[in-house]
Amino acid sequence: MIDNLLSTLLDLKIRYISIKETVKVWYRNKNTNYRMYSLNEVRNKFKKSETVFILGGSESINDVTEKQWNYIAKHDSFGMNWWPVHEFVPTYYQTAFPVDPNFRKRLEDAISKRKKDYNDTIFFLSDRVIKRGMHPRLLKEFFSENPLCCSYKYPERILIKDRNYFIKEDFKRGIVYRGHLNVILYLLMELGYKNIVLIGIDLINAVHFYDHYPSMEWQFIEEYSKPVEEKRKEIHLTATFSKGKMPVDRYIYALNDYVLKPNNINLYVGSNKSKLYPKIDFYSFK
Q1: Each residue's pLDDT tens digit, 165-211
Q2: Pairing of strands 92-94, 281-282
Q3: What is the pLDDT of residues 252-281, one digit of tens each?
Q4: How big, in percent rounded to 5, are the helix, strand and coil portions of the chain?
Q5: In the chain, how many domains are there?
Q6: How high does pLDDT run on average in the chain?
Q7: Using CA atoms, how far apart are residues 205 and 219, in angstroms rounded to an integer?
């Protein structure tokens, strides 16, 4: 009960849209055309393959060939955050809500340019972000024209306290530990995929695939990002042990050993540039 109360207070504190504005906008957008599905409904109605590609933000995305994109298009895929700036349209999409107003407006602009393209894409929303206002009837700018959405309960987090390693028992509580990728892996397991391929998840530096896109020059002009030359020299933040948080690569290795393999789920990387390779097998495009 205490945990639920604290969670409710946190949701109220960091709402994406005020309670007062919520009431007005909810009524104003009463004719919004959207559909909200459960994970079971998405699995039964929209899942078209046993293989799914997670589309990350790393530089190796630019190495994917046209032939490989055509192959990926025949399967399911999951994009996140700034993925809409890429021309490839994913099966699924999920984004975090940017706190900074200017940064948020930039993401809104990126999504708004793809509204029609994303009409068949499923937008994933946890119960946590819905409580804070992330809903197609409240924040239409973050969705397609006639959004298809999937709502799910945010999973329990793994707690390892002061340890700098994972053990099998950690995953009895859940599989989510840290970051957006963890949640997506959880969702894809819930959707029943047998093969999960990590594309553009390199964990070797801070360079993004879109850093040379003209539409993303603002991030350097407005100092939201360091120059690419500096980013290339940086160790990816999620690949380091800091503030008591485990590196992402260590989490993925543990998840693969303790959860995925025992459940006959195959995990791959799509690039041999990834820090995860060769501990995680390389996916051979056919």
Answers
A1: 999 999 998 899 988 999 999 999 999 999 999 999 999 999 999 99
A2: unpaired
A3: 999 999 999 999 999 999 999 999 999 999
A4: 40, 15, 45
A5: 1
A6: 91
A7: 17
In sequence order, the 6+-apart residues with CB closer than 8 A to the CB of 265 are 189, 193, 194, 195, 196, 259
Q: Show the domain range for 30.
A: 2-282
Encode pLDDT of 129-172 as tens digits. Answer: 999 999 999 999 999 999 999 999 999 989 888 888 999 999 99
Residue 225's CB is within 10 A of a number of other CB atoms, namely 17
Q: Rounded to whole angstroms, how far apart are CA atoms 70 and 240?
A: 34
CA dist 220 → 56, 104, 111, 181 (Å): 20, 16, 20, 25
pTM across the whole model: 0.93
Residues 239, 227: Cα–Cα separation, whole Å: 20
Handedness of CA 241, 246, 247, 250 (dihedral sign): positive
Question: Closest Cα partner for 281 from 260, 149, 14, 222?
Answer: 260
Give the number of other CB atoms < 10 A from CB of residue 70: 10
The CATH number given to whatever domain includes residue 63 is 3.90.1480
HEC string of 155-194 equals CCECCCCCCCCCCHHHHHCCCECCCHHHHHHHHHHHCCCC
pLDDT at 3 over 70: no
